[in-house]
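Sequence in, structure out.
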Amino acid sequence: MNKTLTTLFALAVASVTAFSHAQEAKGDVEAGKQKIAMCIGCHGIPGYQSSFPEVHRVPMISGQNAKYIAAALVAYQKGERKHPTMRGIAASLSDQDIADMAAYYEQHGKKGAELPTKPSREPSVQVAELIKKGACVSCHGDNFAKPIDPSYPKIAGQHSDYLFVALKAYKADARNPNLGRSNAIMGGISKQFTNAELKALANYIGSIDGDLQVVPQSRFR
């Protein structure tokens, strides 16, 4: 294992330990179902787009790992993720709210079929080299849908435009109060690539089959 990968692995272990505190409360799916009104106005509408920091589809969260959803919300609370809308929403949530909502979305629309170990669509030679350089599989797992720890996201089939925006956010200037994501692992990885390379990665990962989906939901319950 080269020096860069060794460093990233050490950071990954530390990150998993830190994220383990994000879901100390036990999530209740039924309770979470009653708390998602603020979520479905964006994440429950197929094709819904955000305009910050640029126009892109909001991420699919139905079928995502509960521990990752919880960790992401805590990161918004702490300002480690600087999206103004999400930070405002996360700030209004208790630890129990986060655990309940995360538990709900993990099982929401869950598919019964198991994904294969390898993506059905092979990457181009260029993208394969980028994946190797970024050691993407070492954290996000087989088929980019089986992370080594549930505090990491499933990314297979996620909206490619969202993935591109998220990857660029890890490269943002940390001094910017309104833009960027503070994560030592992803920051170190993303900064190795040009934006064009990040877009190529995002386009490929977004094109393969995954567990994530948008499940249409009514705002009126």
